[in-house]
Amino acid sequence: MLSRSSFTSLVVGVFAVYVAHTCWVMYGIVYTRPCPAAGGGGGGAGCVWPYLARRPRLQLSVYTTTRSNIGAESNIDLVLNVEDFDIEAKFERTVNVSVPKKTRNNGTLYAYIFLHHAGILPWHDSKQVHIVSPLTTYMVPKPEEINLLTGESATQQIEAEKQTSALDEPVSHWRSRLTLNVMVEDFVFDGSSLPADVHRYMKMVQLGKTVHYLPILFIDQLSNRVKDLMVINRSTTELPLTVSYDKISLGKLRFWIHMQDAVYSLQQFGFSEKDADEVKGIFVDTNLYFLALTFFVAAFHLLFDFLAFKNDISFWKKKRSMIGMSTKAVLWRCFSTVVIFLFLLDEQTSLLVLIPAGIGAVIELWKVKKALKMTIKWQGLRPKIQFGTYNDSEKKTEEYDTQAMKYLSYLLYPLCIGGAGYSLLNVKYKSWYSWLINSFVNGVYAFGFLFMLPQLFVNYKMKSVAHLPWKAFTYKVQGATRD
Questions:
Q1: How confident is the model at residue 264 (pLDDT cuts 50, 70, 90)?
Q2: Whole-model pTM?
Q3: Cα–Cα nearest to 175, from 108, 235, 258
């Protein structure tokens, strides 16, 4: 049987190996070995050269169609044409896109992006590259919020379709942003060891005795956020589309491909569009260097959270007496955790957040069972709950705890009731249940720190802090310091 120190050392050792392995994998992603023969003679045999090094005149064309495959220029609409396209110049343009009847009836619309030689139609250019991206996605619309007292809607216009359709039925949503990238580095690849992630985006041509790869065109799907989605209804004939372009380096391109594949894998495992959006936000809204720093901070935070969790469970598992411990503080932590979990559930939060919150709520319920000395006995299918007895020292602790809670209630209850009344008058909610949960969670976030006072009052009266879980507190402080 491993001792506690040995187990902690094992966890720290596994953590160090994990961090080192992650750094090595990330280095392998962002660093690509160039062709060794590129700098020597012989024309660089076995190398794949960049076509962009020839500095061709290029043109960018964006078309829309309801078909996932096109063979000619029929049944497609040109929505953006950039002549003399400069791959080094960043731009952003907003265009209006006609929405076909098929798309308005819960159908799909695709964008075809072509990068081809200037003055030549893309289907007549043998050296064109193109990529396809859906401009629509399916998602359950967010329930409408109203003022519970007046019944006033949050939106002034309510389409007839929304009144009759079920809220849990996915409908077509418009992706209002299309982010394009071209890899601009004049990088010479080794033909015998092409990176698999980039290879599927490469199109190669034979020019004389050398092989060249055409410009690598990439669509940044991580920039497609839920906040940019717009519901498509039958009366919509045009929708705005913001097309933005920026150059990208080879290292960032490979990193972005891996991140998009990871998000796609999550969706294949059953994660919804909203769940995937939480992951996208980590990468899109953060600078890459700051993201690397965030990874290391988060890794250490995870380590200290695990050690705090382990020591907290160990402390309460061996706890037999509540001397010096505030039962009211334990009950409040349990109530707070459960309320936050119900709030996240009501807001349809990502599973990445919801599952840990649910586990935390179950653990806090277990602590309440230990604090109240509850035992559950089953009489057939009916549970019978029994409470243990307190000794004199525990009764003295409970007396101090009740006294502190009495003083605290004079301040806390009016503030919570006042906040709930204000939100009822001024904020719109989906239902009365939603208002109740939001009122509770606002009280938890705003005044939760006040519930440390009963434990502090007990410590003051008993002139001792020896009964607290200090190891768990230490690891929690270490994690908070890194935040």
A1: confident
A2: 0.66
A3: 108
